[in-house]
Design goal:
2 domains; disordered N terminus
Length: 415
Amino acid sequence: MSGWMERYTSKSGKKLRRIHAWNGWVVAALAVSGIVLFLPALRGATAPIRVALKQGHIWAGVASIVLLLLYLPFLGKHVKQLRAKPAQAGNLTIVLLLLVGWSVSGVVLWLERSVPPAWTSAALLAHDALTWVGVPYAIFHSATRSRWVRERRAAERAAAGDDAEAERSYLRYDGSRRRLLKAGIVAAFAVVFGPVAYRLWKRLDAQGGVAVEEIEAAPPANGQELLTPAPDSSPPIGGGAEGSFRIYTVTSIPRFDSAAWSFRIHGLVEEPISWDWPAFAKLARKVQVSDFHCVTGWSVYHATWEGIPLKELLAAAGVKPNARYVKFYSGDGVYTDALSLEQAEMDDVMVAALIDGKPIPEDLGGPVRLIVPRMYAYKSVKWLESIEIIDRDHIGYWQERGYEVDAWVPGANRA
């Protein structure tokens, strides 16, 4: 596409060059911001600006769509110009497929609060796959068509002069050098992005269509063997979780020590209660099947959770009349969140200790985590160690950084 534009000197050609240049900068902004948003290791570091970064990524996506629409009137003439240039025509096809794919999947993710979670799961998988293919391709495309490369090529050809043998020698050398440069770039990105691409490939369902990954539960931590699963948990009555958990945390993952672990309910209650691990592991538990949705677009479907309904724990402690909210503390010492008392007493809100008949791994928030199926996952506090009943609202970790207080999943029954 670039070579054609250099020779196309009409007014429309100049407009097309500007669109091409602006689109390059926009794609670069999308790539950088998207990768920063994707990498779990950067969630804590970018927490104060994460919501603003996400909004910036969205607006860059809108700009890319606008530029794509501005290009459409030139498409027919452009295709005609490239009929005799199969390499450039192929490049145009790849670029357009990437841009359209990014645009469609990005719009679905943008509308995450208005579309079914299954749509956002598929869109996120497509968006990720396009990114790990498209970003290396964009860098490769830019490097092989940069001004420096073109100027060097022109100068060397000029130096060859009219000597036919010198020209042929140069062309052989230039072709070998370009192949070597391309091979080097491809090899570099294979090393950098290969592991990521491999993990993404593993997540694809063998039948296609849905991202699937069997939950790889780590061996139970010392003490978790006290959790004997109920008959309905193993094998799981939901058939086992379908989907892929993305491991997000704003701090380092706390490690479970059964000898030091404790769990308590306190605040505006008639009788504060605390348990050590052996006592907590003996509490009567119930089993439920529910979906788990993250606000970033991914979902895990019909997981079988086993634990204690939160409303039963609240009833055991005796909530005082002036209580209004339930505040949750994570074992990482940083993360907190809250539900209204009415939300906390929904039937499917659970303090869970097992998933699909296995102890919840530390990476997934074990040994104990909150599960709020009808709200996005940032309300389901991981490494739960303390519940406080309070008389006023509490703004949690992500709400302080721009997330909504009421994180209802689209279509969820709020009754």
